[in-house]
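Justification of computing resources. Each target in the renewal requires a structure prediction run like the one illustrated here; the chain below, 476 residues long, is used simply to show the kind of job we budget for.
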Amino acid sequence: MSRPAGREPRRLTRWWRRRSLRTRLTVIAATAIAVSVFVAFQVASELLDWELRDTAENQLRADSRVLATNAQRAGLAQVQLPPYPGSGRLVRVILPDGSTRTPAGQPALPPVSEHAGRVAQGASADLMESNDSEEGYLIYTLRAGDGAVQVARVADDSPINRFGFGMLLIGLFCVVGGALVGRTVARTGLAPIDRLTAAAVRVAHTRDLDAGIPDEGGGEIRRLIQSINDMLAALRDSRRAQRLLAEDAAHELRTPLTSLRLNVELLIRLDRRGTLNSALPAEGRTRLLNDLGAQVAELSTLAAELTDLARGDVSDENTELLDLADVVVTAATRARSRVPDIEVALDVTSVWVSGRPAALQRAVLNLIDNAGKWSPADQPVQVRLRAEGASAMLEVDDAGPGIDAADVPRVFDRLYRADSARALPGSGLGLSIVQRVVDAHGGRATVARSARGGALLRVDLPAAAPPAPIAVCPAG
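Resulting structure tokens:
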């Protein structure tokens, strides 16, 4: 059963990808040098072969002219042919009748070719040809008198072979040297990467995010180190934020949980003694149950706000074009239903924004809830919405005692509560959620003193162009 055609290339690709970068650089360097040496050898061999052949042909032409001159002088049949010295050129005279004369002791040349015979018959002046016999002769035929003379030389490939062997040795040396140089260059170039890897492994093992990586090298390596240091800084900030969130959540949960536990233990203890009705009259039980309900509601609100804050994003809902006045009216309605005693006075105009409806409604609701905790019973929370230039301006103010100057910079901090607010219900997360929602929408949240003496919380959001009205075609 034959293997699929594409399996071997894929296996080779997987093998290559599993190699280390240092190994791949070494192989690439050695391969590049090997290919370069091979190409240089091919080009040099061709040039050397062409040069040697050209030299041999020129020599054969010169020797043929000398022999032809002697043959014309003395005649083809009487021209003196010196005995063969044992090496070097070979000569032959082609007589008019097609017979040949050769020096004594000279090895036999291949038979006269058809093309050489035509030269002897006067069809052409000369001919350079190569013989494909085992000896491999290069033969030059030159017209002389009524015949022709031939000078031949054995094609000698030994210079090419010696040159090729030398190039092979040089190529092997270059490949080995290139591999060593490539390995050295790879080790030197990847040294910062090795130190970077060691530092990353150390951080992973020790969980110590404060150990930054030394900024060394240049170019891409330096940018990589800076990016990893930025990532470590972000991780440090994230871990610090998680720790603060856990500590603050534990601190905020402790008070309502303690109160809830004490009240529940009181009810259980009185019930076990059978003195629940006598120790707690109906009015006291109602008040205690109301306290329990308020504490459970406070815990639920705190848990929801902690979850929302810990998510790190405003919401998974999509951004859409909406009328902020509708959001404000809906939030005010929810605030009245949650705290029936709160009075909200609305003064809103239609202003369109691009945002997430649920997140914006949550922010407005938190602003109204915060103002409702401070505003006296006979003073409403005033909510105003208007357009100012390219912005949607939302203002929520109360007639409470206002915010101390020392607390203003930290009003929107997570879980921060002023000393005057410790006795009031709340988690200290509401305004921080407002800040996060406003930031996510490209806006700005500020605090000032209201004309009524209380706090004035102002939210400034980028306004958007209202949607184009839908054209209605008349019937008929």
